[in-house]
Amino acid sequence: MSAPRNAEYTKLYNKKTFLRLLRRTPLSRADAARALGLSRAAASLIAEELIREGLVMETPVSAMVRSGRPPIALSVSPDAAYAVGVYLNRDGCTAGVVSLSGEVISRARFRLEAEGKTDALCRSLSKLIEASGVEREKLLGVGISAPGPLDSARGVILNPPQFSLWHGTAIGAEVEEKMALPTLVENNAASLASYYIGKPDAKGSESFLLLLVDSGVGSGLVLKNKLFYGAGSDTGELGHVTVKHDGRMCACGNRGCLEAYAAIPALLTGSRFASWADVMNERLLAEDARDLFEEETEYLASAVVSTVNLLGIDTVLLAGDLRYEGEATAKRMEETVKARLLRKEDKPFSVLPVHSDENTGLSAAAEIVFENYLRI
């Protein structure tokens, strides 16, 4: 009885792994076979099935060949499938329709008021879908990325500091009911961490921490190319690790949290600077800017050292406000962390700013849906 199930599982596994590979880069049948550890014939059978299902397409690599048949590359079809991505943060909401191949078809940015906020969100999403021209049957679902802490399994935003508008909202169930689409909810930093798995920004790292610093401090942890989940579907809250046992009161109710010191508004309180960019612009000219730079990198490095020693990650990716002049911040943090690691000599470690644009957040939110679709 188990043999048919095993065969069906293996077939599904190979198909989804094939799609994962093609989402990164077009491949020939031979290259795909090698990457999957399959025979050329087996890889060709999978490719043909994916082509029939409209998920994969063939493209000649180049018409500029001297003789013989041009090599054929396989890639994800541009209209194979789509997801709606919703990136919620303290500044507002960015949403869009994204294809499985990564193209943003339509996008919008808007603010939501407290009364009827979920209804307003769903109306906006319906308009986005209509504007995109995407057939509804090709929509795999809605991915919502929001500040943590939240309960991903139940789709509930819990009590993120400075995000009271959404406290206790079962946004997953509400949006799923109103939109009639499967809806998944993930932490902002965790969704971004998942988005950067396998991308050049991570420099090939399989175990890394994404540190999202803006009005808060969020983190997403990837171990062996998989987003880490703890008990209760938590993905880690480095921002609420205690860095001073008798320190400032944090909005979460604890004292001395990293976020109470390293979140940009907390860092700049009482200073003449309005943003992290202002600090970085004057860092080489003014002592107070230089002091804030050192203070920020010191707090973050202290928390990162504990994470590296505990979990053995080899890379930290900087996202959010720290991307501005990010190379300088990354270099200073890397120097500080390396000097304090338990294993200094033989352990590779790097801090890197990530590439980001106006679509990164919503693409990361859509990736929640695609990752679920491609999961076995």
Folded structure, characterized:
By secondary structure, the chain is of the alpha/beta class. Helices cover 39% and strands 20% of the residues. The chain has twelve helices and 14 strands. Helix 4 (117-132) packs across helix 5 (171-179). The protein starts with a helix and ends with a helix. The model has no long low-confidence stretch (mean pLDDT 90).
What's the layout of helices and strands?
Blueprint (H helix, E strand, L loop, with lengths): L1 H23 L4 H8 L3 H13 L3 E5 L11 E5 L5 E8 L2 E8 L4 E7 L6 H16 L6 E8 L3 E2 L4 E2 L13 H9 L3 E5 H8 L12 E6 L3 E7 L2 E2 L31 H4 L1 H5 L7 H7 L4 H25 L3 E6 L5 H15 L9 E4 L6 H15 L2
Parallel strand pairs: 3-6, 6-9, 10-13, 13-14
Antiparallel strand pairs: 1-2, 3-4, 4-5, 7-8, 10-11, 11-12
Helix pairs in contact: 2-3, 4-5, 6-12, 9-10, 10-11
Summarize the structure.
The chain is an alpha/beta fold.
Ends distance:
20 Å
Radius of gyration: 23 Å
Compute the average pLDDT: 90
The secondary-structure class comes to: alpha/beta
Helix content: 25-40%
Looking across the biggest beta sheet, what order are the strands in?
Answer: 5-4-3-6-9
Low-confidence regions = none
